[in-house]
């Protein structure tokens, strides 16, 4: 089975035996528009590592690919068909990468997952196979939060503190110092001129958590808002799939949640406990590519010992 986890910053591929053994793995560059062309060199490298030739025929029975920026069911279907035409495997299934996080953190093929990293998304699968998800395309689809959003909010608050439009906050001095500048004015000019990139601004969540730990009211409010947004996504999916009264596993992943910072994790878990007392918060202990692989083994009807062996391999 060919497992693929494709993100914006990196793509992980693995070739998995029917018994869950890891035969070969490679890591390649990420892509904002994953497709057969961007994946082909990585599949070739993976096949070569396993002593196989994709030009000679299928290298496995099934492809399980979980890819970022494949946001709509029709996009998943179109890309599944595209991969099928390449004949790397006999069958192919493409899903949004949130489903890889979900399966990597659950001990069953159903549950709920919320990812809060650079962006945010959430998806759920019910025991009967029903799914619930979000468009997660930005502000216009109801979203708030994630590293990109928080970076902008942190800059906004620090700048307004400096020029007098907003309340004072530790972020004013901390953000400037973090980027090696004297003032927020200088930081803003650096962003405007392209000397500071969006990827650098995303890392301001580190500054935010430190300031919140020190009791900065504005920072505490931002972290609390982020915790609430994570919970609201989970609550929506739990309710839509009628899972709030069950022992459903709720996987919390992505850089911000995986950091384990108590201000964010306790904020989410407390709210979750009030709404769904039997729900089980989980933090994935294997990478998302393992989630894609587990989905593939589910598709092939692999026995429990194969699923356990795969987790052990990661």
UniProtKB/TrEMBL annotation:
It comes from Streptacidiphilus alkalitolerans. It comes from the Bacteria. PANTHER family: N-ACETYL-D-GLUCOSAMINE KINASE (PTHR43190). The keyword Signal does not apply. Pfam families: BcrAD_BadFG (PF01869). This is N-acetylglucosamine kinase. Residues 4-296 form the ATPase BadF/BadG/BcrA/BcrD type domain. The keyword Cell inner membrane does not apply. Keywords: Kinase, Transferase. GO terms for molecular function: kinase activity.
């Amino acid at each position: 089975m060919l497992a693929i986890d494709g993100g914006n910053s990196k793509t992980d591929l693995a070739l998995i035996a029917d018994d869950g053994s890891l035969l070969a793995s490679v890591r390649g560059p990420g892509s904002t528009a994953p497709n057969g062309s961007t994946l082909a060199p990585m599949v070739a490298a993976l096949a070569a590592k396993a002593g196989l030739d994709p030009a000679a025929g299928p290298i496995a029975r099934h492809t399980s690919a979980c890819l970022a920026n494949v946001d709509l069911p029709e996009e998943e279907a179109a890309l599944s068909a595209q991969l099928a035409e390449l004949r790397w495997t006999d069958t192919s299934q493409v899903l949004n990468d949130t489903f890889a996080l979900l399966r990597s953190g659950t001990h069953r093929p159903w549950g709920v997952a919320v990812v809060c990293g650079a962006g945010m998304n959430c998806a759920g699968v019910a025991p009967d196979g029903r799914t619930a998800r979000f468009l997660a395309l930005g502000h216009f689809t109801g979203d708030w939060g994630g590293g990109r959003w928080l970076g902008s909010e942190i800059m906004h608050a620090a700048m307004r503190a400096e020029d007098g439009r907003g309340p004072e906050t530790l972020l004013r001095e901390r953000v400037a110092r973090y980027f090696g500048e004297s003032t927020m004015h200088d930081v803003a000019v650096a962003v405007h001129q392209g000397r500071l990139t969006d990827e650098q601004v995303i890392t301001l969540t580190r500054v935010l958590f430190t300031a919140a730990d020190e009791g900065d009211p504005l920072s505490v409010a931002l972290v609390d808002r982020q915790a609430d947004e994570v919970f609201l996504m989970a609550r929506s999916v739990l309710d839509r799939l009628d899972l709030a009264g069950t022992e459903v596993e709720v996987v919390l992943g992505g850089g911000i949640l995986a950091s384990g910072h108590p201000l964010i994790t306790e904020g989410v878990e407390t709210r979750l406990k009030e709404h769904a007392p039997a729900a089980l918060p989980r933090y994935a202990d294997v990478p998302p590519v393992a989630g894609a692989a587990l989905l593939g083994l589910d598709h092939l009807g692999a026995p429990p010992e194969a699923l356990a062996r795969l987790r052990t391999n990661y």
